[in-house]
Design a protein that fits this description.
Layout (H helix, E strand, L loop, with lengths): L12 H16 L10 E3 L2 E7 L9 E6 L7 E4 L5 E4 L5 E8 L6 E7 L13 E5 L7 E4 L5 H9 L1
């Protein structure tokens, strides 16, 4: 078995090649998250939770009308991880959710035929936050109400 040694001899290409290979291997380990398909809702309300179903209180939520950054409205989830935005016009929006220790997430959605204020949260938006290394997601819940989301997780 022979061991070969490479001399530098004034040519830094070997060094640049080594840096490139190290950088490539590091970037290959990065997590790339892809947004889910845009969904349609009648209310901007829902819950923020972990992948295990634990609620996340005080998560920062921002809703912005598409193409209109001046329309951004912010709030935090309540103690049960719930949120409800009121008085949005029909149109396309983006929801962004951030909380300490979790990967932030954003998702486009369409608000169609907004429901009247004061109605119970029907077909909630479910935000599932993953730890910083994972991919968080936003989707329309398959259950009818927030209470149904609670019951589905405890059974």
């Amino acid at each position: 078995m022979s061991i070969q040694c490479f001399e530098r001899k004034g040519n830094p290409r070997w060094f640049l090649a080594a840096i490139f290979i190290v950088a490539l291997s590091i970037s290959a380990r990065a997590t790339t998250c892809i947004a889910l398909k845009k969904f349609k809702v009648r209310q901007v309300c829902g819950r923020v939770q972990t992948g295990l179903g634990d609620v996340i209180p005080n998560a920062a939520i921002q809703v912005t009308k598409k193409g209109r950054p001046d329309t951004a409205v912010r709030m935090q989830t309540d103690g049960g991880g719930n949120f409800t935005f009121r008085r949005f016009d029909e149109g396309e929006y983006e929801i962004q959710v951030e909380t300490y220790g979790f990967r932030s997430v954003s998702q486009e959605f369409e608000l169609r035929r907004p429901m009247k204020e004061g109605r119970q949260c029907d077909r909630p938006i479910l935000v599932t936050m993953q730890l910083a290394g994972g991919c968080s997601s936003v989707a329309k819940a398959q259950t009818k109400t927030i209470d149904s989301v609670n019951n589905a997780q405890t059974h």
